[in-house]
Amino acid sequence: ARIPPSKEMVNTLLMLRLRKKRLEDSNDTSSEHYHTICYFLKEAEEQVGADWDGVTVLEEENDKPPMPDYIRRAIKKGDIGSVLRWINANRKEDRANASLTIDTVSIPALSAATACGQLASMTHLLQLGANVDGRTIFGGTAISYAFEGELEDVNNKVKLLLSWGASFFPERDCSREGCVSEARKSGHHEVARLLESELGGRRCEIVSLTSQPELNGKTCVADEYLPDSNQYKVT
Fold it and tell me: What pTM, to 2 d.p., does this model score?
């Protein structure tokens, strides 16, 4: 028998259906927002399954600590002091990987900080053990949120996540191609080139450098891809 959907999956499905209906009631069916809602609704329906009886849900043990509302607000505002005090108050709870809830959808703290353009909060969360590839119910990761918020911060957010080993996944918003497309649509062509390159933004070890052999064995970040020479500018 098929495993029933989780409570979070069902809540997400119902929330998306409600949002879609509100947009249709207001005749807003041609906007990008409407099409995005339809895309996520289709994904939610596939995850819940067409044979769901509409009642049964899977009771799950939540191993992540609940996030207080004041911490959720602190993450959005960039109040890193409050966030750090809360995380450090109980390191056994792995609070750096806690999730905040928006419209019944749980989003990892790192993804929320990324969407809000809070670079300092992102850095501290990663240093305290936040999973750079922590995923939402739809499979989104922090890097898929890097193109939201203030566009001038996109470059720094993407470079930070790549330097911490952010991965790409097959889903549209998490794939390398999808991220490149978002970067180009936002006018961030330098970021797009970095995302397209194999080592762009990654931490690497310098080897076989004859001009400055003292740097061999040092760790660096591949900061910029130079396509004409097929080389990287590192920092």
Answer: 0.69
